[in-house]
Design a protein that fits this description.
443 residues
């Protein structure tokens, strides 16, 4: 039955891609219809599928919606204060805009979630990248690749903890592979997407009073973006269940620092204070608040529907059952790393959450590392890294990061699959190959 459910899930994905290809159907509506069709085809009753969908919708909006809204408010303030236009003008003289974005993505990949980090960096991305698809792809692929391979990113942290991997070795192996994967993502984005900026028409939001200090507003945007990503990284440190960073009474405080309400309140307050931006009626419907809400509403709802589809897939048990089918395969030698990678990749592809994929795959591999010849410290560490790489492969319609990249790069769902989803799959394959080579050297 699980194979049939996976086939129905694939049909739902193809349906969404086909009906949204020419822009005649909103992705939100297509996702909703596709989710309902998948639910009924998979054997879910109306009450079961609506309950699962509603729960996934609520979790997605609660976990990512306010973060996206915070980014939209920052972007609206930056536009009105002249920061976006000022930074965009400065970036015109750069030979490439993608190199700094790739570096930012590599460092920010250790944040609590790559989707939240991407959202917080979106206002800066709009300014530096000018809305070019290449810029969005570069940042998204860099975040995705680093998140699966670097500690203390939760995906890598979870798999390393469950498998009792050596954290020092994880950093020694994971950092060069993460850099390699980032370079691969950078090259793939350059080869497949346009780097030509798409100028945003923000002049309607500006007047002589609001453009009093665009340079200061640009500095404020840069500092606030870095600060908010730092809060997300701090939240990752809170996931470490041991002293001195994440244990005891400090843990909840660290976790709270990266939660959406804190990002929203702290980000907007700091942006207004540092930039000294003043706009008549700014807090009303016609001001930056209203413009931010209008720009974010559709994306937030789409993220919620995508979360509903992901939760429905999780509720069927289909991802675990299909991943378990792979456990009978026992590749020999360094090729044994294929198994943990494939298990995590199947989980990720079918249910969308990288963290759930990493935790589940690591649990499945606990008793298999020794029979596979991976029971030594290096083997356990490389197994954890293989799971992290697989848990980021491949991002598509049931993943919030996919929709954020598509929205920022002005890509249709089909174009985003052909670029971002394929890019994450290639990054995963390159990471797996690098890990196999490291295993051959280490053994």
């Amino acid at each position: 039955m699980s194979l049939y459910q996976a086939a129905y899930f694939l049909v739902a994905i193809v349906f969404v891609l086909l009906v949204t290809a020419r822009g005649r159907v909103l992705p939100l509506l297509a996702l909703l219809v596709g989710a309902a069709g998948f639910g009924y085809a998979a054997g879910m009753s109306t009450s079961h599928f609506t309950k699962a969908f509603g729960l996934g919708f609520a979790q997605s909006v609660n976990g990512l919606g306010l973060t996206v809204l915070a980014a939209a408010f920052l972007a609206a303030i930056a536009d009105a204060a002249g920061a976006t236009a000022w930074l965009r003008e400065k970036a015109r003289g750069w030979r490439t805009r993608s190199v700094p974005l790739a570096a930012i993505g590599l460092v920010s990949g250790v944040a609590s979630t790559p989707a939240a980090a991407f959202a917080m960096l979106t206002p800066l991305l709009r300014a530096l990248g000018g809305g070019a698809p290449r810029s969005a792809l570069t940042l998204g692929l860099s975040l995705s690749g680093a998140h699966g391979l670097l500690i203390p990113a939760p995906v890598m942290l979870a798999s390393a903890t469950i498998l009792a991997a050596d954290w020092t070795l994880a950093l020694a192996y994971g950092l060069p592979v993460a850099v390699l994967v980032t370079l691969v993502g950078f090259g793939f984005a350059r080869a497949t997407a346009s780097g030509r900026p798409v100028e945003a028409n923000s002049s309607a939001a500006m007047d002589g009073n609001s453009l009093h200090a665009p340079r200061r507003a640009a500095l404020a945007l840069l500092l606030v973006s870095i600060g908010l990503v730092a809060l997300l990284v701090t939240q990752s440190l809170g996931d470490i269940a041991s002293e001195p960073l994440g244990g005891g009474s400090n843990r909840e405080f660290l976790l709270a620092l990266g939660r959406p309400p804190v990002l929203l309140i702290a980000g907007v307050a700091l942006m207004l204070l540092v930039s000294l931006h003043r706009e008549e009626g700014g807090f009303g419907e016609q001001g930056w608040v209203g413009r931010g809400l209008a720009s974010a509403a559709g994306l937030i709802l789409t993220l919620g529907v995508a979360g509903g589809l992901a939760k429905m897939a999780q509720e069927t048990g289909m991802p675990e059952m299909n991943a378990e089918r792979l456990l009978g395969c026992h590749p020999a030698g360094a090729l044994a790393l294929l198994l943990p990678f494939a298990v995590a990749a199947v989980m990720k592809t079918l249910q969308g959450s990288s963290l759930v994929a990493a935790i589940t795959a690591a649990g499945m591999m606990m008793e298999l590392v020794a029979p596979l010849g991976l029971g030594d410290p290096a083997g356990r560490t490389l197994t954890a890294l293989a799971i992290g790489a697989g848990a980021m492969t491949a991002s598509h319609l049931n993943d919030g990061l996919f929709w954020l990249v598509a929205h920022a790069g002005r890509l249709s769902p089909a174009a985003a699959v052909a670029r971002f989803s394929l890019g994450t799959a290639i990054q995963g394959g390159v990471a797996l190959l690098a890990l196999i080579l490291l295993r051959l050297v280490a053994s």
